[in-house]
Amino acid sequence: MPNRFFRLAAVLLMLAVLLAGCGDKTAGQVFRLDILWEPSSLDPQTASSDEQYLILLNTMEGLLKMDENQNPVEAAAESYTVSADGLTYTFLLREGMLWSDGETPVTAYDFQFAFQRLLDPQTQAPFASNFTCIRGAAAALSGEGTVRNIGVSARDERTLVFSLENANPTFLSLLTTPASLPCNEDFFRASRGKYGVSDEFMLFNGPFSIYNWSEGKYIHIRKNTHYYAQDEVIPSAFRLYIQGENDLSRLTGGAVDAAAVSFSDLELLEESYETVQFSNILWAILPNLDRPALANQSIRQALAAAIDREDLSAYLAQNQQIAFMPVPPAVTIGGVSYRERTGESDGLDALSYTAAELFQIGLRELEEEAPPSLTLICPDSGGTPLLLSQLQRQWLDTLGVFINIEPLEQSQLEARIASRDYDLALCSVKAAYDSPEAVLSQLCGNESLTGWQNDRLAGYMNGAKTASTADGILFAYRSAEQLLTQNGIVLPLFYETSYYATAPSVSGLRFSPFGCHVYFAGGRKKG
Question: How far is it, in rounded angstroms, from Cα 222 to Cα 207?
Fold first, then answer.
């Protein structure tokens, strides 16, 4: 009898081993990725950097999220309805959701408080103005009203209602951004001003939660066992290494499982590496409006009108395409490329004078006979200096002005631009989220890269946020773009395509054109 028992136990053990061997070994893996900078805070309402977005969009979940086609779908919300006039959105939250402490329920009141924080001027949330379509939001931000009166109200623990000042076709997309993520009021107040500065002062409601944050080294993020859809989360964890630079050898050497790669590095990768690409970066020349010559509109318009982009196209790399307008092709409105819907007209053809005539008009307005002495700073990498050398010849031939070209290392270039220590600068602009606003807000306004603002521009930007139709939104953003180009505030040169690559053993990671967004929940990796 004992021998028979042991033989049976041995057979069962062998069967268990065989079955385990047949299991899915691609699930439950730990993924690794490098990030450039360590986030100083993970407060969703104040987040703005790529690294903050990357972490928040994997550890937290709003009412809605973007699917693989960049369309908003239900997340923390089980369902929603929109009134016939487009002014009332009612969301029903999923039942039984918990924060990552495993005890605190996620409720509609957490979203109500998050929007009160977002629209409180003391929060200084960088993207709060995107939500001025909400009733009372503009008044609250200006200090004329109070956040207690904004059109965001929790009827009960599962029902959240938004009341809008005007219909906004992009409102659902706005609800997928980090600014819209929930915040538990009791936990926030118990943090006593430290909310988001470390994992100790954070609660998570998404697929993952931070397990270990080693300052200056890495952030280890593991599966959130209290997430309502934890069975759909395939990896066990992912780790972000704080590196300060992208190093292809870390991908090819197996130190990380995915990486952003440059166009020049693509040819170094074997065919077994999967890549995705997005035309999502604008490169444009920005005149420094603090310089007397460039404060003159005629001089700026002359420089802009003298650019022959067809001629410059011969000097572009394969991952670059000529740009006439600021917003790159990856940005969409209603699921369709914004650039396709609005065209490429920069408004310069409507000017009353030629480039050469404008330049002479500008010199007379400045009471100068000789052209100004100007220098254009630019990156020293790739073929950029060669491209700008051709532009330099165009300006000399058309306007009679010789503009110096000063190539700089990227860190020096960024420092000079930040301190406004330049005449003209070639710089890149990338959207952090899917909206023309994400690009244009970096190019207009007192705190923007250009520092330029006027009433018409403000009217168009505000009009895009309050427009009730898609056509109204398109008109407002297109008009804002044309103001920037026609006035020589932004001189678009080309769009650049960016690339992400995954190791041969990896599948299921999802990448976004905006920020540094990698979604890990569907990731698989061969052991």
Answer: 9
